[in-house]
Amino acid sequence: MQTPDLNTLATHSILFTGHMIDRADRAVPRFPAVLEDEVKQKILFHIQAEQARIGEGILLTAIASGACGGDVIFHESCISAGVPSVMYLPKDPGAFVHESVDFAGTRWVKRFDHLYEHLPHIICTPEMLLPPLLNDGSEHDVWSFCNLVMLADAMKEGGEHMTLIALWNGQGGDGPGGTAHLVSTAQRLGAAIIVIDI
């Protein structure tokens, strides 16, 4: 049986966005560490469901950032499912880990480091150009800009060839460029969205 040429296969992208593990001093729980195993099972389920839905003859790829919690779990689940994923960061890895991983403890830092070492990764910089559909001329903070870069890359074959999986409680974020921002932008563009409620 002839092996298909990966360069000629149609592609479908899974884009992930989701909450970080809660900080120890978080007043209202959102993603407490006790839910990690449950979240991991749900994320893996939806990745495998997309694999089954897409079927053979289409290359399934995945995109996510690298924060502790949902992002790291998503990349690990992609590895388990055999789906290649790419990590996108809004700033250099040292600064990113300091802001989005360190607070959760050394276990999460080690998991991030392992993924960063073994996965393709992209640092989103202001020099990157957004497609007209996502470029309204306004300035973006680094977090929102990274969201838009990920969304643009996930939709490069068209919105019908992209699925957004969102680990989301349905509420606004704690700061700019969070899960709510990416979900609302994808909704505006008519993307298929799977919400894992938490």
Number of domain units = 1
List low-pLDDT spans. 1-6
**Count of discrete alpha- or pi-helical segments spanning 4 or more residues:** 6
Give the % helix.
25-40%
Keywords:
single chain; 198 residues; alpha/beta; Rossmann fold; 6 helices
Write up this protein.
The protein has 198 residues and is of the alpha/beta class. The protein is globular and about 45 Å long. It has a single domain (10-197), classed as 3-Layer(aba) Sandwich (Rossmann fold), CATH 3.40.50.450. It contains six helices and six strands; from the N terminus they run βαβαβααβαβαβ. It has a six-stranded parallel sheet with strand order 4-3-2-1-5-6, with helices on both faces.
Brief rundown of the structure:
Helices cover 38% and strands 19% of the residues.
List the SSEs and their pairings.
Layout: E1 10-18, H1 36-54, E2 58-64, H2 70-81, E3 85-89, H3 93-100, H4 106-118, E4 121-123, H5 142-154, E5 162-168, H6 179-188, E6 192-197
Parallel strand pairs: 1-2, 1-5, 2-3, 3-4, 5-6
Helix pairs in contact: 1-2, 5-6
